[in-house]
Write a structure and sequence with these properties.
single chain; mainly alpha; globular
């Protein structure tokens, strides 16, 4: 069975999102302490995702 191209596009977008989110969490953990990103996301998701959006904008890489 062949997978339609639109499925690959969705998978690609999800992978980029996950990789960038992982990079953001790793960045926070290294800047503060191990586990900080998870605590920040749970305690204040609005601020977490606001900072994540800013991080994505400032660290965008053309692929």
């Amino acid at each position: 069975m062949v997978t339609p191209p639109e499925v690959f596009g969705r998978l690609s977008i999800h992978f980029k999102y996950s990789a960038m989110l992982d990079a953001f969490k790793e960045f926070l953990d290294k800047m503060y302490w191990e586990g900080y990103a998870e605590e920040f996301e749970e305690d204040n998701p609005t601020a977490f995702y606001t900072h994540y959006r800013e991080f994505k904008t400032n660290h965008r890489l053309p692929i």
